[in-house]
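User: We ran a pulldown and think these components assemble together. Before we commit to crystallization trials, I'd like a predicted model of the whole complex to look at. Sequences follow.
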Amino acid sequence: MALPLIELSDVHKTYGAGTDVVVEVLHGIDFAMQAGEFTALIGPSGSGKSTLLNLIGLLEPPTAGSYRLHGQETTVLPEAELTQLRATTIGFVFQFHHLLPAFSATENVLIPGLIAHGPVTAPRREAARDVLRAVGLGDRLDYPPRKLSGGQQQRVAIARALSLAPPLVLADEPTGNLDTHSADEIFALMRRFNAQRGVAFLIVTHDPRLARRCDRIVELVDGAIAGDRPNSADRSGEHLHAAATHRPA
Amino acid sequence: MNFEWVVALRFLREGRFQTALIIGGAAAGVAVVIFITALVNGLQANTLKRVLGTQADIVIRPAEEVARPQREPRPGEALLPRVEARAQRLRSIDQWQSLDLALQAMPRIKAVSPMVSGPGFAVRADATKSIALFGVEPERYNRIVAVDEKLVAGEYRVQAGEAVIGKELAKDLGLALGDRFRIVTAETDAPVSDTFTVTGIVDLGVRDLNRRTVFVTLRAAQTLLGLPGGATQLDLKIEDLFEAEDIAQRLAAQTGLTVESWMRTNEQLLAAINAQNITTRTIRGFVIVIVALGIASVLVVWVVQKRREIGILRAMGASRGQVQRVFLLQGAIVALAGSAIGCALALAMIVVFLRVARNADGSPLFVLTVSPELLLGAVIGAVIGGLLAAASPARRAAALDPAQAIRM
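Assistant: Here's a predicted model for the assembly, 657 residues in total across the polymer chains.
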């Protein structure tokens, strides 16, 4: 079997170290994901989902344990290299889309490239427009975020996450802020990129309806993994609704 | 454009109101600094010109004659001599011609002029006035004191038998151009006298000088004062007025002669100028600090407001250094823009000032000049100030924990 894309073993995360209030949020997580996987991370509020996602996204370091990305141990890397690794390996989609309001849709998609590779070139600009067209925003390329609907903004965020073609996209409640219809569209979009480009997705969601459409469901309860099961049901975009209604809970 | 520039400029554009506010503040500060500096420089140049317009920057005279006891005390012996200070007789500088040539060849010295000066009397009909007799080489002396600019009548022409005199003296003796008068001196055993024709009348700006000054040729003064071939002083003009004391001390050490700079002979003026300089510098310092604090406070607020966006940028791979540079750049950009506007503003203020501040006769009160160095210095200073002001906010921005910043 190929090297896992990410591999966490016995990862702990503690907040407030050195103070009176020490809280351990994650208690020894063992978790691995292969390239091209499409996984849901579910669990009640406060179970540590976001913390785990931030850890995997290299936004914060684990307090103890090992985290290998592409086989590379990350806990020993200095901040600058983590930043570099984050830029090239991981795309983020946040619940509140978090677009930069001062930049147009295309510019928002261009920013990761601007950070990683320097001044924008014409081919990169065209590539950014292509990604936006692929998420269905071909007619809104130069709109500022405030002139886009919530669903459209989230599409821009997905396009941005994919702009440097990372092998992994982390999505924190990507549909949490959207109506059912938009949520379905966004979800289908992520499935499509997963199928077409082999991008792995790890999606934190509260919505069991969406979780059931993922290949694998990992459940986090009180900072420990309480369940991890494959979800082999039909998952092609065309049958999403049928699959969701027929599967027993 | 790279990441830092793109984001810095866009953030500035996004926060138009705040940007305008700090650029305005920086502009006002820079304008005040430039205007005050130009004003004080103009005032000082004017004062110096008026006061020093009739003096040489440095004057070299023979060493003073000192009375010495006739013998030194032997060991174990004490002398109780009463040594009277010697009366200083009029003497020539030893070997002044070679000193003259050496001085002319020195750097930082613009002009040298030999002079024979001494007391005398101007006599016409029944009137006798005590005068200060100045024997000069007219062209050379004119480079020390611009006598030709101070003429009120006639011309600055001093040849054998000719004299240029102060206007009060002309009035006292009832002298007009072309009139003749006699100069009598008592430096030698027998009084010497000679007759001169008035070719020019000058206003030196000081009543006492106007009442006593008589310019004649070097040779005529040598004869009258009994110093054939001599020069009682060498007048110097130097490149930088404020180096006068330095140069004077060096020359004194080298030559053993008495060397006095204008800074010694006008100590009060110098003290006033120094006080003025300190005041200006203090005001300038305060203005700069206030402007820097203004920029810093707006940027601090900015960083707080932009926390989430900073977090997103960091999540997308922006390094701490990149984020820090974005805010440093913002500080530098607003300072640069502000100082450019400030320069324009200062120039406008100066134009208005020159139009308003005029003498009764409509001539400008004094000259206000703004050197390119001053403008450049103000801009560079402002940019450095902007960078310093931005340093702390930029560090805060870079230190933000991206995970936390996004959750906000």
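Residues 6-101+168-246 of chain A form a domain with the Rossmann fold fold (CATH 3.40.50.300). That may be worth checking against your pulldown data before setting up trials.

User: Thanks, that helps.
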